[in-house]
Amino acid sequence: MAQKIHHYSNGEITVTWKPGNCIHSGICFKGLAGVFDPRRRPWIDMSQATTQQIIDQVKKCPSAALSIESNTPVD
Ligand code: SF4
Asked: Which domains does the chain have, with CATH numbers?
């Protein structure tokens, strides 16, 4: 069965979340609570931090449930 993938974009980057990979470590919402809030739907709000803050937090996801799928080239 194909894995479900959710996409969240702020126009510059797209964060993907694979719920099947998430081990619910809480690292994302402890680190960047405005963007990642499991009580909210959708639970990721890309307007609550800068693109760089979101990239830095996504890199800390221990299970690779979060990733950056696309971004605009930066000089
Ligand atoms: S940091 Fe990754 S594994 Fe942990 S809760 Fe967030 S998405 Fe899930």
From this structure: 6-71 (3.30.70.20)
pTM for the predicted model, two decimal places: 0.90
Q: Assess whether pLDDT exceeds 70 at residue 1.
A: no
Most ligand 1 atoms within 8 A of CB, residue of 18, 22, 30, 43 to mutate: 22
Query: HEC states along the chain?
Result: CCCCCEEEECCCEEEEECCCCCCCCCHHHHHCCCCECCCCCCCECHHHCCHHHHHHHHHCCCCCCEEEEEECCCC
